[in-house]
Batch of 2 targets.
Target 1
Amino acid sequence: MEESATQPPTAATPSATAAKLAMRHVDFHYGPFRALKDISLDIHDRAITAIIGPSGCGKSTLLRTFNRMNELIPRTRVTGDVLLDGTGIYGPDVDVAVLRKRIGMVFQRPNPFPASIYDNVAIGPRRHGRKEPDVQEIVERSLCRAALWDEVKDGLKGPALALSAGQQQLLCIARALAVEPEAILMDEPCSSLDPAATLEVEELMLELAQEYAIVIVTHNMQQAARVSSMSACMMMDPDRAGVLAEYDATSLIFTNPKDKRTEDYISGRIG
Amino acid sequence: MTPFKERIPGFVFLLFALSALSALALIAAFLFVEGVPLIAKVGVGPFLFGMKWAPSQGLYGIFPMIVGTVAVTLGAAVLGVPVALACAVFLTEFAPRAVSAVVRPAIQLLAGIPSVVYGFWGLIFIVPAIRTWFGGPGLSLLAGSVILAIMILPTIISIAEVSLNALPRLYKEGALALGMTHWQAIRTVLIPSAKSGILAAVILGIGRAIGETMAVIMVLGNAVALPRSILDPARTLTTNIGIEMGYASGDHQQALFATGIVLLLIIMALNSLAQVAVNRRRT
């Protein structure tokens, strides 16, 4: 653990106190198919955690378990504990809407609603009962925070779908920020963006990491190396269930992986 | 240049497509040839806004029927559209697969019931019910609106359902990820996102209501006077043609064709409106 001490969050082993989000022995089933097997990990606050691994190993499923998005698919089942600030989020008295307000999400393809730029950001705060002068301020603050304000401030009433893909993704981040989340999940947020837009989003992520716990799923290992402080490398077991092969400080994962499969994946031999 | 042999199929299909088009052209031409002279004779103003329709006295004012058409259609929309949209939302967002597997074909079946059956059913059940509960003759705008409201359900439901289903799944996920409840997501994201398709559904449903004749003849009472309330009998443009075509001749017959022109123009306007609504979705 010596090397990881230079990383902002030091603990690489699960420890209940420091974690914003955590999993304890989590299994996830799609019907009879087990997609995640015995996952335990801690997501640190104010840091970027990357989830990497070959296609189909359950990275997105893992991410979506944190905001219960997988529930949209019928016949799915979670066992084990998923914790937000130490409290289980799959408990019977948990309000899913409140949970998802606390844990924002940015999707693989930018998905602004077919409405104006302003309304896209305002829709969340309005839903949560904020009134217009407040909403206006939140919209401006969120767009500033997402580094999009200067580009769109003169055309807030313009259609969001007219923005470039990169701008749309920044808008989606602004939209997520507008509901004042505590953590942000990003599911391959740059996979449909060009390199310049990718760079912009990455810079934004690094900045947001000073305030939020960020979990990012990425296929791009350079991206994981560039932005994340912690990396979780997932692998597919022979029974096709996703397992956590290795979870450690990103610098360690990329320089000195302990798991053979991680090493193979990172050096490009598999995946 | 494509060899001649390979161009034959395209040519054959073009012929068939043109035959459909030429049917439209023939009907329109016939309507105009027969109807326009009468309108010219009576005058556009007196024809459209004349209050009295009395062919035996040479009076051809269709304003009461325009009012009847608009009123009964509006009534059908007021009664039918909310039910249809609720049904479309139910089918796309709430219904378990087993339920929608029954409800969807049932609604399609609704579209297959002959309109004379609707009319008969309306005459036997709706008309007496209105007479008993609300008074008046029962044969009324209200009875027509109720029947038409039911008849336009399948049109509106299926088109609205298609446009709701066509929304990217990411819209719903995006809305839920912001901490919206399912209903909030439907209300503030899904329905507004599908609004152009829903609008087109409503317009096409209204077009269907305007064009319906048989069922309306049976329950509307067919009085040529201007209706004063929804419990009054009335006559629509379509029923006017349907009732009088059997014995009309000369100017009278031409006046019915002229009524058809007005109908055709209304339907054309509505269809273009629906087209505009649909096209707006793509921009």
Target 2
Amino acid sequence: MGKLKLIIDGIIKNNPTFVLILGMCPTLGTTTSALNGMGMGLATLFVLVLSNMTISAIAKLIPEQVRIPSYIVVIAAFVTIVQLLLQAYLPSLYETLGIFIPLIVVNCIVLGRAEAYANKNSVIDSACDGIGVGLGFTIALTILGFVRELLGSGSIFGWKFIQGDGILAFILAPGAFIVLAYLIVLFRTVTAKKA
Amino acid sequence: MEYIIIIISAVFVNNIVLSQFLGICPFLGVSQKVNTALGMSAAVTFVMALSTLATYLLQYYVLVPLGIEFLQTVSFILVIAGLVQMVEIILKKISPALYQALGIFLPLITTNCCVLGVALLVVNNEFTFGSDPHMLNLGQSVVYTVACALGYGLAITLFAGIREQLDLNNIPKVFRGVPIALIVTGIMAMAFIGFAGIV
């Protein structure tokens, strides 16, 4: 039960996008469609789970003073793996996400979980935490991408249901900021009612 | 002429925050006061110029000749982290006044994605400034980086100015903090779209 709670906490109580407001750059930059958002979320999930597990396994071996640089190297290694895998098997997604793939290294969510959770807890718990937070991030990005795609190009997961263009502003930068703002407001209203 | 186009393009048309979505976390985090926003943008300009110079040389004189471009991400982030640390130590020693002004921002900059982002943009992308698509040379890279940093400074300072006024207003409770800040940023981004087509 404890493990499941860890995962659900990551999705709702500690949702990285809607509650902690971390990792904004990929959140805004890659969510022009639901599929792109989901791709970015899953890439981050992969890095997050593996880096959390590795860091929790080696945390005791790393001297206190050099822990942050060591974590960054571990994270950067996994990011490079994701980068090469995407390039080989999903080249079109790799092209669309572009610079935001290597930028997972400086995503504050990944380093934040390593510092706040993984270096104090067991490998299994850290993996669950990574899955929870990663899923929370993926879900948030997919929703944001879904809304932007729906309004901006009039399609759902690539299936177009109107002729011609949508409201172009939602695909461009302003739409990203404004849709995210309203989603945070919605999330706050819903969770406040529950509590 | 080419340099002027690079500067206008990087500051206004492709503003790093408002159209490329880089460095949003510090943009939302340290924009409460105009003074801190100015401090942050000065620190970003300084570190970004140095790090792009270092990573450009690393890319073309180490990674490419040795054929190990796949280590780009790992090596760039290490160089940037090391550089930030070094800048901090040197500033502390030679210019305590400047260190006082920029010091608290420096550790934050390692995880500011616009530093790594611009370093990667410069070596991975082709640009069209006045002529056919081409990779930037060293001089153009540095000008482009400084212009990006100025664009960052412009956006964050304008935003801090608006935010100081926002605090005085009665905003609905659920909108307070980040949501209203994001809406303001969205409206600013809309204004900056007006620059598209200048270059």
